[in-house]
Amino acid sequence: MLTVPVWAFAPSLPLLWAGAFIMQFFVQGAWGVIPAHINELSPDPVRGFLPGFAYQCGVAVASQIPHTQALFAAHTSYAQAMALSAATVFILGAVVAGVGPERRGVAFGRGAPYP
What we know:
Elements: H1 3-8, H2 13-31, H3 34-41, H4 50-62, H5 65-75, H6 78-99
């Protein structure tokens, strides 16, 4: 979360690059494994369908973010709108990850986890 101010409120181009790089590095590191996780959570009959469908639903929801950012920017600065939207997404992602289910010992094709 520390990189949001560096990325959004950078007073110079090198700080903007550094903040954007650090934020994207950690986003890919943390969320790059999500397709595999969604695949593990999927029931056997829909394992080939559900991960892609979940991603497309996420894209549909995310398509509204530019409009929402423009509404925020009309009342504040562009930097504040970007920082607010990034912080909101980070917080919601943390809540979903904290509340979401975990399945350890899944045996694909058997339906139930290992004993």
